[in-house]
Amino acid sequence: MAKTIRSKGQEALCQALVDARKKAGLSQKELAVKLRHHQSFVARVESGERRIDVVELIQLSRAVGFDPFEILAIVEAATEPDHKI
Questions:
Q1: Host domain of residue 36
Q2: Residue 22 maps to which CATH number?
Q3: Which DSSP string do the residues of 28-58 spell out, in sequence order?
């Protein structure tokens, strides 16, 4: 069974989150304050070291101000059609 931690879809998610944060003009520390987490949490999410679930994606979208469906479309486009979980 293929792992998804370093998949193209996961890498696309991480990059999309970084891009959204930067577009919003937020530093990792500023985002962390909004999320009530440490800056290291944001760094781990953005690097792919820590995975997020759907609820966390919604929380991130609210804190940063992006449409979670746009991020999901990016991930869907990057995910190989035959990728197994």
A1: 8-78
A2: 1.10.260.40
A3: HHHHHHHHTS-HHHHHHHHHTSS---HHHHH
